[in-house]
Amino acid sequence: MTLHYKVSTRIPRPVEEAFDHVVEPALLSSYFTSDASGPLEAGKKVRWTWAGGESETLEVGAVERNRRIEFRWKAGYVDVVTTVVIAFAPDGPEACTVTIEESGWPDAEGDNARSAFEQCAGWQRMLLCMKARMKFGVDLRG
C-alpha cells in the first residue's frame, strides 16, 4: 500500500491572489518560507528555505495559472521523492479553495508513515498560515 494524502482550506480571497501567494517568492515568504530562490515556473528548480535553516529543492513540473502547480521534492526523514500538487478552485468571486495532495511513499510502514504524517501536518500548517496572512494580515510564525 502506498501513502498519499490531501488537505484543503477555503481562503476568503480571489483565486488569483491565492495562486500568487504560492508562486511568488516575496508573498510565499510572508507566511511560509523564509526565502524562495525564484517563482514557481514549469521546468525550473526552486530552492525553499525556512527560518530554522532547513531547505529543499523543488523540481517544478507544471504550472497552470490560477488552477494547479505540480512539483517533486525529497520527502522529510526518508530517501523518497514525492509529488506535490497544489490545486486552486474558485468558490465564488471573492473566495477559493486551495487543496494540497502529496504522494509517492512506497509503503505505509515505519519512517515512510512518519514522513507522510509530518509532511501532511506541515502542509496543513502552511494553508492555515496562508489564510491568516491573506484574511487578517498576520504572520502565525511568531
Task: Furnish the topology, listing elements before pairings.
Layout: E1 3-11, H1 15-23, H2 25-28, E2 35-36, E3 45-49, E4 55-64, E5 68-74, E6 81-90, E7 96-105, H3 110-136
Antiparallel strand pairs: 1-7, 2-3, 3-4, 4-5, 5-6, 6-7
Question: Please, could you describe this protein's structure?
Answer:
The protein is α+β, with helices and mostly antiparallel strands and 142 residues long. It has one domain (3-136): Alpha-D-Glucose-1,6-Bisphosphate, Chain A, domain 4 (2-Layer Sandwich), CATH 3.30.530. The chain has helices spanning 15-23, 25-28, 110-136; strands at 3-11, 35-36, 45-49, 55-64, 68-74, 81-90, 96-105. Strands 1-7-6-5-4-3-2 form a seven-stranded antiparallel β-sheet. β6 and β7 (96-105) form a beta hairpin. The longest helix has 27 residues, at 110-136. The protein is globular and about 40 Å long. The mean pLDDT is 95.
